[in-house]
Write a structure and sequence with these properties.
It is built from eleven helices and no strands. With 208 residues, the chain is mainly alpha-helical. Helix 4 packs parallel to helix 6. The longest helix is centred in the first third of the chain and has 18 residues.
């Protein structure tokens, strides 16, 4: 936010797009939508088409969370259009971000297999992406493990892969412990599940 406040024009647009990724992590989708709309207007005014596409994709992602009239079908249609444009431009980074959004939409539609396929593909090159994008990919793996149709042993493998995608951090450890607890409970390992929940809660308490 401070960086965005210090610049204007296309530089402010770029800073706002990066800010959107951070705001998504804390689920402040209304602020994401506001920042993305401003970034879109600035990028279009500057004639920066790739940046405008990134801002538009943030709008799609956030609008689906806060606008009841903007359903999954609309978000998928718009994200797919943006994906095709990124592919036309040869913009691999933009394509990956589109796939993250489409993976989330597939999960919301209940097509967890497609969501998992996308997360697996992106996990192969997650080390090339910003931290907040890696968290989004890990979320796709977590969703497949907990809500999807994976057998329990494959679910535990998906959780471990998600841990590797996120990298070492206390937040990553808390997320991993939370999802692991769910699978342990499904497996009837209640004492281990309770211990995993306690671990997650302790980490979150320690970091405030």
């Amino acid at each position: 936010q401070r960086a965005a406040a210090l610049v204007d024009g296309v530089d402010r647009a770029a800073a706002l797009v990066r800010l959107c990724g951070v705001l998504e992590e804390i689920f402040d989708f209304r602020s994401v939508l506001d920042a993305a709309n401003e970034a879109l207007a600035l990028a279009e005014s500057a004639g920066d088409h790739p940046l405008a596409l990134r801002a538009r994709l943030r709008v799609v992602s956030a609008r689906g969370q806060v606008d009841p009239g903007y359903g999954i079908g609309s978000a998928e249609r718009d994200a797919t259009e943006i994906l095709k444009e990124f592919e036309r431009l040869g913009d691999a980074d933009g394509r990956d971000r589109c796939l993250i959004v489409l993976g989330h939409q597939a999960f919301y539609r209940g097509v967890s297999t497609r969501s998992y396929e996308i997360a697996q593909e992106l996990a192969e090159r997650a080390d090339q992406l910003p931290r907040y994008e890696r968290v989004a990919i890990a979320t796709g793996l977590h969703q497949a493990a907990y809500f999807g149709a994976l057998p329990l042993d494959e679910g535990f493998q998906a959780i471990e892969r998600a841990r590797g995608v996120m990298g070492d951090s206390l937040i990553a450890e808390a997320r991993t412990a939370t999802v692991t607890a769910g699978l342990l409970a499904m497996a009837g390992r209640s004492d281990e599940a309770d211990a995993s929940v306690d671990r997650a809660n302790q980490i979150l308490e320690d970091i405030g």
